[in-house]
Structure formats: structure tokens, C-alpha cells
Amino acid sequence: MTRKRMFLRMITASLLRRRSRMLIALLSIGIGATILAGLVTIYVDVPRQMGAQFRSYGANMLILPREGENLTKEDLTEILQAIPEEELVGATPYQYVRLDMTSRQQSFTAAGTDFTGVVRTSPYFSVEGAYPAETRQILVGREIAETIGVKPGFTMELTFQPSAAEGSLSPEESRVPGASLSGRGEGFGGGMVYVTALLNEEAGIDRITVDVSTQTPEYGGRIPEDDAFLAQFRGKSLPLVLGEDVDALSGATVTSGAIVDALNSAVQTGEAARPRTVMFTVTGILTTGGEEEGYVFLSLEDMEAMTGMDRLDVAELSVSAGAEQLERYAEAITEGGEKAQARLVKRVTRSEASVLEKLTALVFLVTLVVVLLTMICVSTTMMAVVSERRREIGLRKALGASDRSIRSEFLGEGMFLGLLGGVMGALLGFAFAQAVSVNVFGSSITFQPLLLPSAILVSMVVAALSCLLPIRRAVAIDPALVLKGE
Amino acid sequence: MSLLEIRDVSKIYGELKALDRVSLHVDQGEWVAIMGPSGSGKSTMMNIIGCMDKPTSGEVLLDGVDISRESSRRLTDIRRDKIGLIFQQFHMVSYLTAVENVMVSQYYHSMPDEEEALEALGRVGLRERARHLPSQLSGGEQQRVCVARALINHPELILADEPTGNLDEANENIVLDLFAQLHREGTTLIVVTHDPEVADAAQRTIVLEHGRVAREVINEHFGA
Asked: Cα–Cα distance between A132 and A299 in angstroms, integer?
């Protein structure tokens, strides 16, 4: 048998065969380790738990398009790659426009959004009725609902007025492949000429069709059959100037002019610029206590169909991560994206960070107190154990044990206690943390594999430190005491 | 050849002279009893010979080494290597079995060897009781375990402090027989006792009184 095995045999025998005494020491270490392991487990898990709690206060990050850039849903999907899926609680795109309710002569801010996202990023939204689930359904803010007197089930007609309808047509708005424009001009003898143009992708004319039934058949009336005349318009951009862009058909100068006028006017009142009106069904009334009560919400699909635009004004993100991590994500998105930048909602991230800071301090303090109490407890018990075993220690010394042997035996016993206490602490501590987590946060936690070795290590160190004073006492025992026949 | 040579040794505790210029010697292989009433200096003598105390003055040569001037660490080494101790109160480690108690002595000396420890227990007739805890052994059995423990490392000197003080006559005889056996094998024995019968078993008896050697008695019947 090796010395090492004999050493282990001695210290385990001491603990196992002297159960009652060592049980007290074991309990002190075990309870201490339980509280510590529990606290640490909760502490490690709390940022996640708190994060989930904080996520109910809404989005903590915003994605905004850069100046002059058009941010689309596809762009957003790409940007979201920067955040791990498991940390992304939700991402909700928004497109804001003014919609008119012509029947009431009112206009509202309308948000086109994704309602499955809204539920995640704005969990505090309170809806009387239901969120829209189908197309042409709408959620109305309480303020608006009260003003115009709608309830779930009511319908309302909303109109999108493109800015073009007020005078000028922006090139973007008419740059829709295959869009058609139609207009009219005054022809020969006061008769109206109607022209429809199909636009190509450069907003140039692809082809035109004309209605010249009011014109003299022998003159203006033959234009529809004159392919050479009509071919002149192909590829031309509006507005046109007669005699420069296109030549008048000889003998039908007035009618030709009317066609050019009709096209020029069509640019400004084209199909793309025509107001679009949609009938919506109200599914719910939204209460938030905030400015959202003055908005109406519809699906992004409905909104894009109405406006013909696929730009996003903002995307709200709810990310379950600490303040520093959020900062890193925001930086990565801002630096990596040409189209968008990320901003943190400081109001939310700051309060989260400050709560965590206070919690850290609290856990640290409690840990310190528990470690101290445990050490006092173990030290006192070991002190009693040394007194109780004075004769045995004297005997060992009389048999030739060096101070070093005595020291390592007691340290060995202490650390063995620490080992048992650590295992007990890790398991009970996890159960304790689980109970707290379920009762306080209402969610369970996963066992951290590192908990076991670290709990064992810490309790062994604490036990060893607690043994230092008792060991000094043990070493000071006089071996001669065994001879005196006490 | 003397194994132990005590020259002019005094031990003074404050006003009390526990030992007063004592000189004595013990030869290699000799069996000596030290007798005397309480307070005669027996225990002090035992402590000094057992390397657990140092004299105030004088020399103590154990196997040629002056142990009166050594550091306590050196004294521990010397005690471990040269002396086997037997106590009146038996003194076993209460949570270790008989054989483990013997092995503790091996552990501090060199290397624990369970076979050898069991053999030693066999010598004192306790091989069958090797796995018993001290609480399961009688006083006599415990003292026999202590004898086995004292001889396990083959010490040059066995130092026994009232080894039979707590034993009945039958067990006393068993222990004395074991001593006689060890003596025949050449082990030096010093037995501190106040029991004349135990002293009679030795070759020579040194009687201490008031810290001095009062007389020495040679046992003429020794071996008879």
C-alpha cells in the first residue's frame, strides 16, 4: 500500500467513522456551498431572465435607413444576420405614411407593419379585439377610434394620395415597369384627343395608343393607322416638345399637338400618381398610453400595395443581450451596412444595465457574507474537532508524525469535507436556484456544467482556509501528553 | 555496548527539580525497569528518553547521538526511527481498525504494508481481530495491538510507560511474555512501572526517588 492510499484511508476513515462530529462541519460547508452555488447560478442566469423581463418594455434597438437610402425588407433580413437567432426576440419593420379618411375629412399617420413582430417587440400593446390577421384589416389607435367612433368590426375607407397628385410626379413614382399613363388634349375643332402611353423602365415611352374619333378622318383621324408617326414616340421621355422630339403629321398639326399635350399632362396625372383607396375592416382598438394611440396599423403588404413603395422607415428590434453586447451589435450593423444604421434605445438599455449592476453588487456582498459565515462555522467546528482529538494528535506525533504530516492530514480532511460539501452545494444549489427562478421569474434554468467543478473548488479552498487556525493548534499539541496517563 | 547513556541530567520546572543530576546507562539488548513513586521523576525521564522533552542540563546519548541538544524536528525523526512507544492508556486511533492502527506507525516511519502489519498482529495473537475497531477490542487486546504497533518498525528501543497498569493479570502476563520474546530477539526494553511484578520481569531495576537514582537492583532470577 502506498503512503498516498494510507493517507486517504486515514482521512476518509476519520470522516466516515466519526460521522456525528464531521457532519456538522460538512453541513456548514454544504449549506454555504448551496447558497453560493444557488446565488451564482441565479446570477449567471439573471441577465437572461432580466433580459426577458426587460424585453416586455419594448424594443431596445432601432434600425434606421441612412440618409437618401432605401431600406427594404430584404435588406433588413440581411442586417439581422448580425444578431444570433436565439438572442433576437423580435424584429418589426415599419413604413409610415399619411392616409386620408375622405369621408371624415381626416388624415392619420398609418404604420404598415408585421403584426407577428409587433407582439414580440411591443408586448405592452394592449388590443381590444384582435390584431389584424388577414389582408385589408386594420388596427386603430384608441385616440383615433374615439375621434371617429369606430369599434372592432367597423369598416373605414382610407386613401393614399401620392405626392404627385398635388402637382409634380417624381421620376421614382412613375418608374414602374409597364405603368400606363393616360391623358387628353384639345384637338382640331375643339374635339378631345385621348392618349394612353405604356412606359418602359427608364420612364420613357414604350408605345402609345390614341383615340382620335373626334378628329377629321382624312387628317387627324388617320393617326392610329400611321405606324411611322407612332414609332417616333418610342423611347422618348416626357415631357415632349413638338417639332423637336417628335414631328407633326403633315396635315394634322393640331391633332399631333393635342397628342403631345395629352402625354405631357399625363405625366402629372398618370396611373402611378392616382390616389388609391382601400376599404379596411377594423379588428381591434390599440391602447398603449403613448403616441401609438394616434396611429392606425395595417399589414406591410397592404401598405406597400397602396403606396407602391417598398421602403422601410424604421425597424424595431428586441434583442435579449446585455448593454455591452447590444452596443457591439449596433456597431457591427452600423459599420457593416451601407443602407442602414443601428441605434440603441438608451432608456431601456440603461435601466437594464443599472439594475444588473446593483444585482452584481448585491450578489457579491451576499457571497462575501456567506463565505465568511461558512469559514467561521467550519473553523469553529474544526477547532472543536482538534480539541476533541488532542490525544490522537499527540499519539500521532509520538509515533513520529512530523508537523507537516499533521498539517496535511487535517488539511486533507478539511478538503475532503470541502469536496463533499461542494458536490452537495452544487446539486442543492441548483435546486435552490431552480426554485427561486421558477417562483420569481416564472421560468426554469439550465444546469451549468461548470457549476460542479467550480463549487467543489471554491468549497475546498474555503474549507482549507477555515482549517488553518485549527491546524496551528493541532501542530502545537505536545506529544508527551500521551505518556502522562491522562 | 550502551544504547542509552544519561550523564548528569537535570530537569527543572521553575522551583521543582524533576530530575536532579541523574546518570544511568542501558546496554544494547538490555531489559530495564524504571520504578519509583509518583513525583519521583519517572515521567520526566520517560519524556526525555522518548525524545519528547529536553533536559535542562546534562547529556543524553541515544545510539551515540546527543538528543539533549537536538531540535524538536530532529527529535521527531529520531523517535520515529529508533523508538517504539507503548502507553498505559493504550492510545489507539479510535476510528481506525487494529491493523490500520499498526499501519499508522508504518506510515509515519516509511511505507504502510498491510501484510507486515497483519503479521505483527499475528505475533501478538490478534490476526483474527485485525479488522476490529478499538471499541470492539478488550483492554488487553488493545494493549497487544499497541505492542504490535511498537515493534512494527523494528525499533532499537521499546519504551513502555506503565504498559500493564490498566490490565488484568492474564493480559499482564501475555504482555510480559511478549516483552520476554522481544528481549530474546535482542530488542532493548525500558519499562517504566510502579508494579514490582512487572519490574521483576526485567533484568535490572532502576529506582528513582525525588529526581535521583535511589538504587539499582539486578534481578538474579532473570530468565529462570
From this structure: 8
How far, in Å, CA of A95 to CA of A97, rounded?
Answer: 7
Residue type, B3: L
Strand partners, A276: A160
Q: Which residues of A touch B162 (CB under 8 A)?
A: 485
Neighbours of A368 (CB within 10 A): 10
Nearest beta carbon to residue B52 from set A1, A398, A401: A398
User: Where on the phi/psi map is residue A203: left (φ > 0), alpha (ψ -120 to 50), or beta?
Assistant: left
Of residues A323 and A431, which shows the higher confidence score?
A431
Quote the ipTM score.
0.91
Q: Pick A485's closest partner by Cβ from B85, B89, B94.
A: B89
Hey, are the CB atoms on B95 and A7 less than 8 Å from each other? Answer: no
Task: List beta partners, residue A110.
Answer: A97, A296
Distances (CA, A) of A183 to A229, A261, A302, A463: 19, 8, 28, 93
Tell me which of A138-152, A258-272, B116-130, B192-206 is least confident: A258-272
The per-type count for chain B, helices as H runs and strands as E runs, is 7, 10
**Residue range A135-173, pLDDT digits in tens:** 899 999 999 999 898 999 999 989 887 753 333 344 455
DSSP summary character for residue B135: G
Q: Is A5 on the interface with B (CB under 8 A)?
A: yes
Distance, CA of B89 to CA of B161 (rounded, Å):
9
Count of domains forming chain B: 1
pLDDT at A484: 62
Helix axes A403-436, A346-388, angle to 10 degrees: 140
Q: Which of A13, A395, A405 lies closest to B91 in CB terms?
A: A395
Residue B120 placed within a domain: yes
Contact B123, B184 (CB under 8 A): no
Domain encompassing residue B200: 29-56+71-218
A479, A389 Cβ separation under 8 angstroms:
no
The reported pLDDT for the residue numbered A311 is 84
Contacts of B114 in chain A (CB under 8 A): 1
CATH classification of the domain holding B199: 3.40.50.300
Percent of chain B with pLDDT over 90: 62
The set of cell numbers assigned to A328 is 457591439
Report residue B50: phi and psi, to 5°: -80, 10
The three-state secondary structure class of B64 is coil
- Within a domain: residue B162? yes
Residue numbers in A near B46 (CB within 8 A): 483
Whole-number Cα distances in Å, A232 to A189, A195, A262, A416: 25, 15, 16, 99
pTM of this structure: 0.62
- The CATH 3.90.1010 domain(s) of chain A lie at 171-273
Q: Is B50 a member of any domain? A: yes
User: What is the nearest CA distance from B156 to chain A, expressed in angstroms?
Assistant: 14
Question: How many residues appear in chain A?
Answer: 486
Name which of A3, A391, A484 is nearest B43 (Cβ-Cβ): A484
| Contact residues, chain B, for A23 at CB < 8 Å | none
Q: Does residue A8 sit at the B interface (CB-CB below 8 Å)?
A: no
What does the pLDDT look like over A227-240, one tens digit per residue?
888 888 888 877 78
CATH topology of domain A171-273: Sufe protein. Chain: A (3.90.1010)
Q: What is the mean pLDDT of residues A270-283?
A: 76
Cβ B91–A482 below 8 Å, yes or no? yes
Q: Are A260 and A103 in contact (CB under 8 A)?
A: no
**CA torsion angle A471 A472 A474 A475 (round to 10):** 120
Lowest mean pLDDT segment, chosen from A349-353, A454-458, B151-155: A349-353
